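worker-03 picked up job from queue 'complexes'. Input manifest follows; three sequence lines, order preserved.
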Amino acid sequence: MTAREFFSRVRQRLVRYGVGELLAGWWFSRRLTRHGIIVASDGHPWPKVINRGGVIHTENCQFYSGVRLEVGPGGRIEIGNGTYLNRNTEVHAATLVSIGRTCKISWDVVIMDSDMHTLPGRVSEKPVVIEDDVWIGCRSIVLKGVRIGRGAVIAAGSVVTKDIPAGAIAGGVPARVLSTVKEAADRG
Amino acid sequence: MTAREFFSRVRQRLVRYGVGELLAGWWFSRRLTRHGIIVASDGHPWPKVINRGGVIHTENCQFYSGVRLEVGPGGRIEIGNGTYLNRNTEVHAATLVSIGRTCKISWDVVIMDSDMHTLPGRVSEKPVVIEDDVWIGCRSIVLKGVRIGRGAVIAAGSVVTKDIPAGAIAGGVPARVLSTVKEAADRG
Amino acid sequence: MTAREFFSRVRQRLVRYGVGELLAGWWFSRRLTRHGIIVASDGHPWPKVINRGGVIHTENCQFYSGVRLEVGPGGRIEIGNGTYLNRNTEVHAATLVSIGRTCKISWDVVIMDSDMHTLPGRVSEKPVVIEDDVWIGCRSIVLKGVRIGRGAVIAAGSVVTKDIPAGAIAGGVPARVLSTVKEAADRG
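worker-03 finished. Artifact:
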């Protein structure tokens, strides 16, 4: 990206988000290991990073108030371009949580790649991968080892314990595939 | 209501809620389009209104800390007399969320009449109607297009995706009718 | 415990938690009826006690930010040694909520022994007993009358409406036994 393109983008963002959200985003982004332009929206309480020895790589992203990114030693959070995390959403990475591009992560969502505690005979940490263009409804929980395929939609209040294929609409506790985005369009 | 009745009511409320909650309620109510006497309980963070061009009509209501009323352009929230919304409960109206009289809405409840995003072939907004005397348990989510009948009870942690008849006790994800208030009384 | 043992313990805790969390814990603990050494972690908003005429007895415990202990008239909360309650977890006791020793209660958990409102023919309050070494996953709700047996594990996002036996791994809405800690160890 040339300096010109960079400033043009900053200008677009200034018009769209206002100085406050960009300044707040810049302040927040200093806690990230590597990052694009960050927008911090919706005011207090500011997004929070708890980094115990891992890395957080994001592209240009938007974080709303109360968002919490937590990485353990050797843990890694990756968030792709154009993705936002809405209010109070939490990401906990002991190994890897990878969120793709232009994902819409709603409010009060928890994404964690770890059981937080170990049980005998049970692997307690497995990477979570959320592919591009995924929508996750409010109050959902995504647990360790889950891969959510490209463009999938997770209904509000779901607990995702197993992989969800690309383009699926899934919901429930535990989350099951209810339909697909294509079927919904065909019915329409 | 005569002036005398008005002041008598204010006095009753002063005794019941204290000056602080009434003052806070008055401050909050200025954000509402039309309203009765509002009580804002439980202190900081104060209830919040995000109005992007809709209307909020309430009668005499009580809102606890962290409540969030959000209306989009042309959206409408109606809340009946004697209803309260407990801590951190959120109402999102893109078209209409109508909550009846003397409803008890617990804490951390989300009521929304919209998917927030559109999918091809899928209507993303439908009114939510909650009739009089409904109880909604903590952490429940009420999704678009749902009508909850008079006097129904929604168990804690439910996700309500379909209509619930009057007098039913419903729960689960998605919420199903488990019993009725009358049956429970007969068994008792 | 001799004075020497006492100071040795305080010293251990100082090293582990730092002065701030112990001071905050001491400040918070003044609201408890009887208590051991309390650690208040993770800063603002501080743990909160709403006591309407009951008692709260804890041994040495750790409370994270936003924890809320609420007892009604004649209600009782008991929390055993070495147990922690993570961020924003709430305990509501109208009669009795008893939590054992070295329990790990995750964040955003609600534990309540009451329906909060009465229905005709329905007992609205029954004690909740959580035995020693229980783990409760984030965003779970434990409802009235439930006993969770020693060492049981409750998955994230569960709503526990019935007793869970000792050593079980349970999850879902309503929570069912999915496996046992022993089975998981044998498979491993």
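worker-03 released lock.
The two ends of chain C are 41 Å apart (CA to CA).
Chain C has three helices and 19 strands.
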